[in-house]
Design goal:
With 232 residues, the protein is an alpha/beta fold. It contains nine helices and twelve strands. The strands form three sheets. Strands 2-1-3-4-5 form a five-stranded parallel sheet, with helices on both faces. Strands 6-7-8-9 form a four-stranded antiparallel sheet. It has a three-stranded antiparallel sheet with strand order 10-12-11. The longest helix is centred in the last third of the chain and has 19 residues. The radius of gyration is 18 Å and the shape is elongated. The two termini are 35 Å apart.
């Protein structure tokens, strides 16, 4: 059994889709590829179902009865880093940006091929398999299972919160993340943190990275947020 088979044998995919025929089609294709599925047809039922089941990935439609996908994605990111692939028939660029800014891992526009969806699911889960993110020729390595981070082979000695901040930035190097997005991923509970709290954690990560590399790896975009920039 190869690594992809091992993933699919254990990965429960939650299909959040109010179109029953489409949901059934996705269910059939995913199950044929070895992914057990859980279908939720209303947006206001997603969080409860997610908390009650060991979901490995959420396939989330944007337009849903009860609660829309944007609100659901925002709520999920307050307590979970489960991969989210958003699907929608609304292809305006603003929807695409909002979806990804809230922490979605991928975005698929309708109409789509079920085979494409399965391929995207496999790709996202493959990246999650080891809990590790490597960027720019292995310069930065993050292990999400042990919360260990290294730069150029040297441990960064990050706190748990600092690790989560860097993990978010490293998921998409070069992408500018708003402070609100970064704040949502810092803590497991629902505490309220300020922009200044995020700035302080960014400062700490910068200093630890600079000691090793002599470089400022986090770029500030005034009035917007931060991005990770790692030269090769």
């Amino acid at each position: 059994m190869n690594s992809a088979d091992k993933i699919s044998a254990k990965a429960l995919v939650m299909i959040v889709e109010d179109e029953i025929k489409l949901a059934e089609l996705l269910k059939d294709y995913l199950q044929q590829s070895g992914y057990p599925t859980l279908w939720v047809g209303r947006g206001d039922q997603v969080i409860e179902s997610l908390r009650a089941n060991p979901v490995a990935l959420v396939l989330l439609d944007l337009m849903l009865p009860g609660k829309d996908g944007i609100d659901i994605c925002r709520e999920i990111r307050q307590f979970s880093n489960v991969p989210i692939i958003m699907t929608t028939a609304r292809i305006e660029e603003i929807d695409r940006l909002i979806g990804l800014e809230l922490g979605a891992d991928d975005y698929i526009c309708k109409p789509y091929s079920p085979r494409e969806v399965v391929a995207r699911v496999k790709a996202v889960l493959r990246r999650q398999q080891s809990g590790e993110i490597a960027t720019e020729q292995q310069r930065l390595v993050l292990d999400g299972e042990t919360y260990r981070a290294s730069l150029d082979g040297v441990s960064l000695n990050l706190t748990r919160v600092e690790f989560r901040l860097l993990m978010t930035l490293a998921a998409r190097p070069g992408k500018v993340f708003a402070r609100d997005t970064l704040m949502n991923g810092l803590y497991d509970d629902y505490r309220v943190v300020s922009d200044r709290t995020v700035d302080t954690h960014v400062k700490n990560v910068r200093q630890k990275a600079a000691v090793i590399s002599g470089e400022d790896l986090i770029r500030s975009v005034y009035g917007v947020g931060y991005s990770l920039e790692i030269p090769g």
